[in-house]
């Protein structure tokens, strides 16, 4: 077989995978949009003004790596329309995970594989409670992207990476095929060899960044410049690490130092999505970020005083704030 023929056949096999995207926010919109633009069969589940805009005007992704414009994406507001998909990128907010898992259990094929990309460390287990362990893999997204307007996703940094981990041996081949499709679409998609460690490393970053920027109501640079800011970040990182270790995750000894170095390297303007949601009066993912650290700490008898203070300060805003007209 000639090289060009081999590449065409390989691309055909990748594009034959039917991919569903549940939740077309920054993660689902960006990665799903790139996959669809590269020729993969992608079906989006989007609701409200964003879903209506996608159906009427298409989906646009603006990114430092080049823009994407899908004039007529395959989009619906019904989870049942995912019935024919082979692999689902599950990208909803955490508060929708359990309910969506129960709905998906009744409409997906027996062989469909669901890969959650939510913040926190609990999404895969919550989905597996409804779908079974063999149908739920592990996903970790590294990107800063958001819905800028209905039908428009804005990619805000130069990270666009997905790490996937098999929770069951039968998942490996399909996840590797997805990674190949992602690479062909122009973003980083890799298999995680240490999925629990990678998941908790991201959790350590998220809980420090989200806890500090939401608590202080300022971006990361301002926190780093205040006398107490570095101590706040360090305490949040070290408390999350202590909980990971107590949960049985074999985190490397230098984990805290590496995470703090990573936080030091972030742009001064960076803030967590939870801080943005707080400013906008939206519902917060607090129960699954800093709240999860506190909950697991209490379970394992670990002291996390800084995390407890952050949760207490933000809890009044957890369900969002309705502003008077």
Describe how the helices and strands are arranged.
Layout (H helix, E strand, L loop, with lengths): L2 H14 L1 E5 L3 H12 L3 E5 L2 H10 L1 E4 L5 E3 L3 E3 L10 E4 L6 H9 L7 E4 L6 H9 L6 E12 L2 E14 L6 H14 L2 E4 L3 H22 L3 H6 L3 H18 L8 H11 L7 H8 L9 H11 L4 H10 L11
Parallel strand pairs: 1-2, 1-6, 2-5, 3-9, 6-7, 9-10
Antiparallel strand pairs: 3-4, 8-9
Helix pairs in contact: 2-6, 4-5, 7-9, 7-10, 7-11, 7-13, 9-10, 9-12, 12-13
Describe the structure.
- Mean pLDDT is 92; it is low at 1-13.
- Helix content is 47%, strand content 18%.
- α6 (172-185) links the parallel β9 (152-165) and β10.
- A five-stranded parallel beta sheet has the order 5-2-1-6-7. Strands 3, 4, 8, 9 and 10 form a five-stranded mixed beta sheet that branches.
- It contains 13 helices and ten strands.
- The chain has helices at 3-16, 26-37, 48-57, 97-105, 123-131, 172-185, 195-216, 220-225, 229-246, 255-265, 273-280, 290-300, 305-314, and strands at residues 18-22, 41-45, 59-62, 68-70, 74-76, 87-90, 113-116, 138-149, 152-165, 188-191.
- The chain is globular.
- The termini are far apart.
- It is of the alpha/beta class.
Helix content: 40-55%
N- to C-terminal distance: 68 Å
Molecular shape: globular
- Counted by DSSP, the helix tally is 13
The chain-level structural class is alpha/beta
Q: What is the N-to-C order of secondary-structure elements (H for helix, E for strand)?
A: HEHEHEEEEHEHEEHEHHHHHHH
* Largest sheet properties: 5 strands, parallel
Strand order of the largest sheet: 5-2-1-6-7
Strand content: 15-25%
């Amino acid at each position: 077989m000639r090289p060009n023929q081999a590449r065409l056949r390989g691309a055909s096999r990748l594009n034959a995978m039917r991919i569903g995207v549940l939740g077309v926010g920054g993660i689902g919109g960006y990665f799903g949009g790139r996959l669809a633009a590269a020729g993969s069969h992608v079906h989006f589940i989007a609701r409200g003004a964003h879903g209506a805009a996608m159906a009427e005007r298409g989906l646009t992704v603006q990114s430092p790596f080049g823009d994407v414009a899908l004039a007529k994406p395959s989009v619906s507001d019904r989870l049942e329309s995912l019935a024919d998909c082979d692999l689902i990128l599950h990208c909803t907010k955490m508060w929708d995970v359990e309910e969506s898992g129960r709905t998906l259990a009744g409409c997906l094929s027996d062989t469909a594989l669901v890969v959650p990309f939510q913040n926190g460390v609990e999404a895969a287990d919550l989905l597996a409670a409804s779908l079974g362990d063999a149908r739920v893999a592990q996903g970790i997204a590294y990107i800063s992207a958001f819905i800028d307007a209905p039908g428009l996703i804005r990619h805000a940094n130069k990270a666009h990476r997905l790490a996937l981990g098999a929770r069951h041996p039968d998942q490996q081949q399909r996840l590797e095929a997805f990674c190949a499709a992602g690479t062909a679409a122009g973003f980083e998609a890799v298999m995680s060899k240490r999925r629990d460690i990678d998941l908790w490393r991201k959790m350590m970053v998220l809980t420090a960044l989200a806890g500090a920027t939401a608590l202080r109501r300022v971006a990361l640079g301002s926190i780093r410049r205040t006398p107490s800011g570095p101590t706040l970040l360090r305490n949040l990182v070290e408390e999350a690490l202590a909980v990971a270790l107590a949960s049985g995750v074999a985190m490397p000894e230098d984990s805290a130092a590496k995470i703090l170095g990573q936080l030091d390297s972030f742009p001064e303007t960076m803030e967590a999505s939870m801080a943005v949601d707080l400013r906008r009066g939206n519902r917060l993912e607090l129960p699954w970020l800093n709240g999860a650290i506190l909950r697991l700490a209490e379970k394992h008898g670990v002291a996390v005083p800084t995390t407890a203070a952050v949760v207490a300060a933000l809890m009044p805003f957890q369900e969002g704030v309705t502003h008077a007209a």
